[in-house]
Design goal:
about 325 residues, about 25% strand, globular, 4-stranded antiparallel sheet, 9-stranded mixed sheet, alpha+beta
């Protein structure tokens, strides 16, 4: 990567501006090294990326903003995990930092689960959180440093603890009022502005059974939800996010501030997996992603969109 940047620097006399948002986790992992090398990063700086990727620093950010995350604590080793379980009880969800695809994340429901997890290669330190019951949401916020816009929200139909890549999801949400959706969008917007974001940020949260909004994490990159939102709403989310990352305002990027109005179509995203080809493999869903693809059903009505997604899944088996 630095060889390419040095080549560009030799051609122009200046290092190129790098946009990490659309490069997946690999690009995000390069942020600190690029910043150290003096490469300008558009959209979200290395320090802000560190805040989102480090579970403990992100929890501190939520505290400063007066936002609620799941009850939890840091575990540096097995003894720390035991102490967290004593404080929180079971079930819990354990998360290392700087991961993608849910790798290393696990839901522990019993002492047997804990013992089995400790026999794996654990990525200490772990963030140990209560497992919150409710409806999980994916919220993509686009910000210009001063204002934010949410083009759409995905509602996960599987319970919290199942990776969003393995969950059936629907846009717009079908079980939540417009008021709750606006509150969720505002939470994502506050996080984006607190980080100094220009561009796109994916925030995952849970609407708990008692109505509280619990923030799980923020991903400083485009998630799989971005193309779904774009197709379902007809909004060019990628172009708008890139323009904001390069200095445009929301208005100049063609977006209005706040949560956008629902589009004419309902979208249902369904996972496609290949586990049926592998006899004996554990097919239970959890926080580590197992699907190998996704399909999208679009229709004016939710029931028709769901049927279209089911037919698409069947066609890929």
């Amino acid at each position: 990567m630095l060889d390419v940047i040095d080549h560009e620097r030799n051609l122009t006399g200046e290092p190129p501006i790098v946009l990490l948002t659309f490069g997946g986790q690999t690009a995000i992992d390069l942020a600190k090294d690029l910043a150290y090398a003096g490469v300008p990063i558009a959209g979200l700086g290395a320090e802000a990326i560190e805040t989102t990727e480090d579970r403990e620093r992100f929890a501190e950010l939520l505290d400063r903003l007066g936002l609620e995350g799941p009850r939890g604590q840091l575990a540096l080793d097995a003894a720390g995990l035991d102490a967290a379980i004593a404080a929180l009880g079971l079930p819990i969800i354990v998360r290392p930092s700087w991961v993608i695809g849910g790798r290393g994340i696990a839901v522990l429901r019993s002492a047997g689960d804990v013992d089995a997890y400790l026999r794996t290669e654990v990525g200490w330190p772990l963030r140990v959180d209560e497992l919150v019951r409710g409806i999980e949401l994916d919220v993509d916020a686009i910000a210009d440093g001063e204002q934010w816009s949410v083009p759409g929200i995905l509602e996960q139909l599987e319970p919290p603890g199942v990776h969003s890549g393995d969950s059936v999801a629907v846009l717009p949400p079908q079980r939540l009022s417009r008021l709750v959706q606006e509150e969720a969008a505002a939470v994502a917007g506050r996080i984006a502005l607190a980080l100094g974001l220009r561009g796109v940020l994916n925030v995952q949260m849970i609407v708990a059974e008692d109505g509280r909004l619990i923030v799980i994490e923020a991903n400083p990159r485009a998630s799989r939800t971005v193309p779904i939102v774009a197709k379902a709403t007809g909004r060019d989310v990628v172009a708008a996010a890139v323009r904001c990352a390069l200095g445009a305002t929301l208005g100049e990027a063609g977006l209005d501030a706040g949560l956008a109005a629902d589009g004419p179509m309902v979208a249902v995203k369904a996972p496609v997996d290949s586990l049926w080809r592998l006899p004996g493999v554990d097919v239970d869903l959890g926080p580590e992603m197992r699907s190998t693809g996704e399909v999208l059903g679009l229709a004016p009505r939710y029931s028709d969109a769901m049927q279209a997604a089911r037919e698409a899944v069947a066609a890929h088996r």
